[in-house]
Amino acid sequence: MHYKAILFLFLTMFFTALFPLTSYSNDIFTEVIITVKDDKIMAFSAAKSNWVSTRIKLSERVLSKKSQGNVGIVVTNKRIVGFSVLTGQWTSENLKMNEEPTEISVEGNVATIETNERVVGFSAHTGQWIEAP
Question: 122: closest CA among 59, 77, 69?
Answer without folding.
Answer: 69
